[in-house]
Design brief:
This protein is α+β, with helices and mostly antiparallel strands and 412 residues long. The chain has helices at 2-5, 7-14, 19-59, 64-70, 73-78, 80-93, 98-132, 142-166, 170-179, 181-187, 189-204, 248-251, 258-262, 284-290, 294-313, 329-342, 378-395, and strands at residues 212-215, 220-227, 231-236, 241-245, 255-256, 266-274, 354-357, 365-373.
Length: 412
């Protein structure tokens, strides 16, 4: 190797050039040839070495190697060959220029460290993409773990680079970092908090990618699309993106709708405001008319039979309606609502179905419908709920009930 790198030096000496001139000319020609060789070697390495692995990956059934190709791992590996070649030739080429050789060796050592970091980064990204493709890891915060590893890799790389530049041992830097721990904690406070939060979120299964969460403080109401070391990205239903600091997911409260999505239904909880003055006992005429409604026909017969027996047994004077037991239009309507919901095809029968009367208000007496739609898709859920209340609002007059309305004065 020495004869090759010094060939032009001896050639120019034979031609009568001074030693100084021969050295510089030899160096210039050597660098030019070396640059050309490195360029060609790098090109061949990328075309041949990387192409072989890309061809193998395209034929392989395993998807991991496909992600290696996607993240250019083989392209980075191909750079090792020309970099190793220049580090090997450099001492011989610059034998007459020790100072320049020293700085160039340092430069290429740093390049080697950076190249190794880039290779490790591409491998970590490959693991990230591969794990995200697996159903068991699809909702896990893989980005956070990759970022933590990359911080560690860059930290080690920075120490190695500074050690190479200063000529100090690695332990010297670690000792100095120990003394500067307070400053480091201050600088990397958000990163450390994010790292701790990411671990807690993963271990406690607080949030997964794909969860629907609501956090009013940040205006977030949508699906989690990304969890990384510093933030959680939420795509709201209006397609805007809200970014929430990861640490806030464990330090502040938010609503996760995963429980509803995993359950058998989505809750319907809405009230009808019944005009209180329209609530009354059923007359015999009302009773006969309501018996024609299929959903409450059997209930009316059974309930009226029980009431008549009770009143007769206790000698109740029914000349005054308030005496004894009676059926009211509001009570019968409640039974109708429950029967209607129990027979509705889109209501989950295995979950709570209830029609209950709430405390009267100045706007009327609320009759709350509490049930669960078996279709949890937002659009379908809203349609089902609207259909139910359309029907109930249309039914109310049959029970001689009225819905509370604000009567605004008309203009003359």
């Amino acid at each position: 190797m020495k004869e090759l790198t010094r060939y032009f030096y001896y050639f120019f000496l034979e031609k009568g050039f001074s030693e100084n001139a021969a050295e510089y000319l030899n160096l210039i020609i050597g660098i030019s040839i070396l640059t050309a060789i490195l360029f060609i070697t790098d090109l061949i390495s990328k075309k041949v070495f990387a192409a072989i692995f890309k061809a193998y990956a395209s034929r392989s059934k395993n998807t991991f190697d496909d992600y290696l190709v996607k993240n250019k791992t083989f392209d980075y590996l191909a750079h090792i060959i020309p970099l190793s070649l220049i580090i090997w030739i450099l001492p011989e080429l610059f034998i007459a220029f020790p100072t320049a050789e020293k700085y160039l060796e340092l430069l290429f050592d740093i390049m080697a460290i950076v190249l190794i970091i880039w290779i490790l980064r591409s491998v970590l990204r490959t693991f990230r993409d591969f794990l995200k493709s697996l159903p068991s890891f699809k909702d896990k915060p893989i980005d956070s773990y990759v970022q933590v590893f990359m911080i560690f890799v860059w930290f080690i790389g920075a120490i190695l680079i500074f050690s190479s530049i200063t000529g100090k041992s690695i332990w010297t830097f670690l000792t100095a970092l120990g003394a500067m721990s307070a400053i480091i904690l201050l600088i990397f406070k958000d990163t450390i908090l994010g790292f701790v939060a990411s671990i807690q979120v993963a271990v406690n299964d607080t949030v997964r990618i794909g969860d629907w969460i609501t956090m009013e403080k940040y205006g977030a109401d949508g699906d989690v699309i990304e969890i990384n070391l510093s933030s959680v990205k939420v795509q709201n239903f209006d397609k805007t993106i809200t970014t929430i600091p990861t640490y806030n997911l464990i330090s502040e409260s938010f609503r996760n709708w995963r429980g509803m999505m995993d359950s058998g239904g989505r809750r319907i909880k809405r009230s009808l405001l019944i005009k209180t003055s329209s609530i009354a006992f059923l007359s015999e005429e009302d009773h006969k008319r309501l018996e024609s409604i299929e959903l409450i026909k059997d209930y009316l017969k059974t309930a009226q039979s029980i009431i008549d027996s009770f009143n007769k047994e206790h000698n109740i004077d029914k000349s005054v309606p308030v005496n004894g037991r009676n059926l009211s239009n509001m009570g019968v309507f409640r039974i109708y609502v429950e029967s209607y919901l129990e027979n509705h095809p889109y209501i989950n029968k295995d979950m709570t179905i209830m029609s209950r009367q709430l405390a009267p208000t100045a706007q009327g007496t609320p009759l709350e419908i509490y049930a669960f739609s078996n279709d949890k898709v937002w659009k379908n859920y809203e349609k089902i709920m609207a259909d139910i209340f359309d029907h109930l609002l249309s039914t109310i007059p049959y029970f001689n009930l009225e819905v509370f309305e604000l009567n605004y004065p008309t203009k003359n």
